[in-house]
């Protein structure tokens, strides 16, 4: 498996986890917990997009 395939797989896993967190946030009655889960989902989704962009060659990682 190439490095770009590894990155795409990681991005997909992070995207899936972000969706799980969003779903959990929608189900929780606690407003504070809902906000925490939504923020974590947003961070994961943002990271997922960055990794996906690196895999496609659109951006390069900061070193």
Description:
This protein is mostly helical. Helix content is 81%, strand content 0%. It is built from 2 helices and no strands. Helix 1 runs antiparallel to helix 2. The longest helix is centred in the C-terminal third of the chain and has 26 residues, at 31-56. The two termini are 23 Å apart.
Offer a concise description of the structure:
The protein is 81% helix and 0% strand. It is an all-alpha fold and 63 residues long. Helix 1 runs antiparallel to helix 2.
Defining traits:
single chain; 63 residues; elongated; mainly alpha; 2 helices
Hey, roughly how much beta strand do the residues contain?
under 5%
Distance between the termini: 23 Å
| Shape call | elongated
Taking all Cα atoms into account, the compactness measure Rg is 14 Å
Question: Biggest sheet, in brief?
Answer: none
Q: Kindly state the mean pLDDT as a whole number?
A: 87
H and E string: HH
* Annotation field: number of helices: 2
What is the strand tally?
A: 0
Unreliable residue runs: none
The portion of residues assigned to helices is: over 70%
Structural class: mainly alpha
